[in-house]
Design brief:
mainly beta, six-stranded antiparallel beta sheet, 6 strands, elongated
């Protein structure tokens, strides 16, 4: 379990790890705060693993994520 924040849309939510493969991590996202009503309620997020970095798979955003254990 983890959390996510989308700063540009002010959305926040909870994450659940669904699967870990050799070069891919699949996460289920449920948005819990959406003050501007701009985010999907829930989604599956596929990340490509490249070393210690995670990249949004199939995304034009070019976003990078850092996964931290807390």
């Amino acid at each position: 379990m983890g959390t996510i924040e989308w700063p540009l849309s002010s959305c926040k939510g909870d994450l659940t790890l669904m699967a870990v493969m050799e070069e891919k991590v699949v996460i289920h996202e449920v948005i819990t705060e959406d003050p501007q009503q701009r985010c999907r309620t829930e989604a599956q997020i596929d990340f490509r693993l490249k070393g210690a970095a995670l990249f949004l798979d199939g995304s034009d955003w070019g976003k990078e994520a850092t996964l931290r254990r807390v």
